[in-house]
Design goal:
The complex is a heterodimer. By secondary structure, chain A is an alpha+beta fold. In chain A, 27% of the residues lie in helices and 12% in strands. Chain A contains six helices and five strands, in the order H-H-E-H-E-E-H-E-E-H-H. A three-stranded antiparallel beta sheet of chain A has the order 2-3-5. Chain A has a two-stranded antiparallel sheet with strand order 1-4. The longest helix of chain A has 16 residues. Chain B starts with a helix and ends with a helix. By secondary structure, chain B is mostly helical. Chain B has a two-stranded antiparallel sheet. Chain B folds into two domains: 328 residues, no CATH class; 35 residues, no CATH class. In chain B, a hairpin with a 5-residue loop joins strand 1 and strand 2. The relative contact order of chain B is 0.13. The chains are: A alpha+beta, B mainly alpha.
Chain lengths: 179, 387
């Protein structure tokens, strides 16, 4: 349904333009003395809201064990192909993880490629990869911008989830009802 | 000391005085560009430049961080950047005129200072003597004549750049400056009609204009902005247009012309254009203050002599010519700096006019208004002064 916008004719003071300019100058003067709305970044940091999708990181379970099983789903789903995983065996010096199938030997995320889409977090069956609070990635070289496994765990830390999926699988297998 | 000064050859004296004035105007123009950034930031709710500080100045306890917050040192880092960065000379330009344009911009901007009085002192006979480089009688005429030369720099820059946007910027600049010069000149005439009362000696000197606003009572104590508000208003608008400030930013208009006349310029040549623009603002504001805001008189009906008289009660030192000169320069500079602040304030209030609006405002509104204003005041002044 079309309708006609009613254009008001300008009043005398509006056509003179000067009172309008003075009103505008009053507004800008008010802003001159108003407190700043910006933040002085390196010293002041913004509060990160929950659910923020920052730099992707790897997390450990509450017992400090690696959660990633190197299934490579995140590598396959990653749209810009930023993730590169080298799967490997579980090291023999970790008896409490011996029942886990695999673990990543190397896990690299190229932050120059990453688009922070969060698909890796969404696809991960182990809840091992999370986009967390860090929003600032800097480096002097391209190599510095690739997060390797150690760095990813350093950034990720531990999340207090209580799934212990592989412990449950192990217990179930010992009771003879695997799957 | 004073004897040594007076024994110097006049040419050397002139040279030192001229260099001293330029030595004030040049940093002042730079400081205006910093003030512009700071005022812009404050109006937009930002802190503005506040990072640069020389490491040895950071050791000074309170003043150091304060000056850093104020961004004072960005002035130096800006200047150093402009001086040392690569100075490109595009291959497609007309090299001679391309290099000439920034010079043409700066020279008239600094030359106009010569005829603008910026202060006054009392001599032994208790008479007010202006502080200026050359006390010539043509005053305002010289300011208009030399000041309007600056349009050549914009045209030459636009043409020599040999590309579309600078050319359009140059064309706009020439049309705009010519249009607004008319109303500007016509707006000033009533002031000089009043100053040149019948029977007196004819003059165009800016010093005489200030003297006419230096009375302690009655009509002679008012400033011309009070008795001729319309003249002051038209002069101010035309001044904004002449100095290419927003909302009359046609030659530059970065939204539609990239950078206007200075698109092809970089490094120090570019900054010369800006020093020229800011010194135009300073000199233009100075002329406005002299013509309409009482020059170095602190308040209407409170001329400089009265203020000095009050201060002389405190200490006889206040009658010393150097002190009087400094006070007058201080008052004058204070008004000029406030006027420059208003320039920046208006910049962030008004959007840029469209080109046809600029032309319409200049020719169809301001010019008839200034002619009417001139006729009105000519009749009034004739009636008052021949009574």
């Amino acid at each position: 349904m079309s309708y006609v916008v009613d254009r008001k004719t300008l009043t005398l003071s509006e056509r003179f333009y000067i009172p309008q300019i003075l009103a505008g100058m009053r507004v800008t003067l008010k802003h001159l003395f108003a407190p700043n709305v910006t933040m002085e970044y390196p010293e002041q940091r913004p509060a990160i809201p929950t659910g923020y999708r920052g730099v992707p990181t790897l997390v450990m379970d509450p017992n400090g064990r690696e959660k990633c099983v190197s299934c490579q789903l995140c590598e396959f789903v990653c749209p810009p192909k930023a993730i590169r995983i080298t799967p490997g065996e579980i090291p023999t010096d970790q008896p409490d993880r011996a029942h886990v199938e695999k673990g990543p030997k190397a896990f690299d995320i190229d932050m120059l490629r990453c688009i922070y889409c969060g698909l890796c977090q969404e696809v991960c069956p182990e809840e091992a990869i999370f986009l967390q609070n860090q929003y600032s990635m800097t480096g002097y070289t391209r190599a510095e911008m690739v997060n390797d496994k150690a760095r990813l765990y350093e950034l990720g830390g531990t999340l207090p989830d209580q799934h212990f999926k592989w412990d449950k699988k192990k217990a179930a297998a010992e009771h003879g009802n695997a799957h | 000391m004073i004897e040594f000064w007076q024994n110097l050859p006049p040419l050397v004296q002139m040279l030192i005085k001229g260099l001293a004035v330029i030595g004030v105007i040049f940093p002042l123009a730079g400081a205006s560009s910093l003030a512009e950034r700071k005022v812009s930031a404050w109006i937009q709710g930002r802190p503005g430049p506040n990072r640069a500080i020389p490491f040895w100045f950071a050791w000074v306890p309170i003043i150091g961080p304060f000056l850093q917050r104020l961004g004072v040192f960005h002035l130096m880092s800006d200047g150093a950047k402009m001086l040392f960065k690569e100075d490109p000379l595009p291959g497609h330009v007309n090299k001679f005129y391309f290099l000439l344009a920034p010079v043409l911009a700066v020279v008239p901007a600094f030359t106009t200072v010569a005829v603008v009085p910026f202060g006054a002192y009392l001599n032994d006979a208790h008479q007010l003597v202006p502080l200026m480089l050359s006390n010539v009688d043509i005053g305002i005429l010289a300011v208009f004549a030399i000041g309007s030369l600056s349009v050549y720099s914009l045209i030459v820059a636009g043409w020599a750049s040999n590309s579309k946007y600078p050319f359009l910027g140059g064309v706009r600049a020439s049309a705009q400056l010519i249009s607004y010069e008319l109303s500007m000149t016509l707006a000033v005439i009533p002031v000089f009609l009043w100053v040149n009362a019948p029977g007196g000696e004819g003059t165009l000197s800016l010093f005489k204009v200030v003297e006419a606003q230096s009375g302690a009572s009655g009509w002679s104590g008012t400033w011309f902005a009070m008795t001729m508000p319309l003249s002051a208003f038209i002069f101010l608008i035309a001044l904004y247009a002449e100095t290419n400030r927003q909302p009359f930013d046609m030659p530059e208009s970065e939204a539609d012309l990239v950078g206007g006349f200075h698109t092809e310029y970089g490094a120090f040549k570019w900054s010369l254009f800006f020093v020229a623009e800011y010194s135009h603002m300073i000199v233009g504001s100075g002329v406005f203050v002299l013509l309409f805001l009482g020059g170095w008189n602190p308040l209407p009906w409170v001329p400089l002599e009265t203020l000095i008289g009050w201060l002389a009660h405190l200490s006889p030192l206040a009658l010393h010519p150097i002190f009087v000169g400094l006070v007058s320069i201080g008052v004058f500079l204070g008004k000029v700096l406030f006027s420059i602040f208003v320039f920046m304030w208006v910049r962030w209030t008004l959007p840029r006019f469209r080109y046809d609006q600029v032309m319409k405002l200049g020719w169809q509104k301001l010019l008839p208004l200034s002619i009417g204003n001139l006729i009105f005041y000519a009749l009034i002044i004739a009636w008052i002064q021949t009574r």
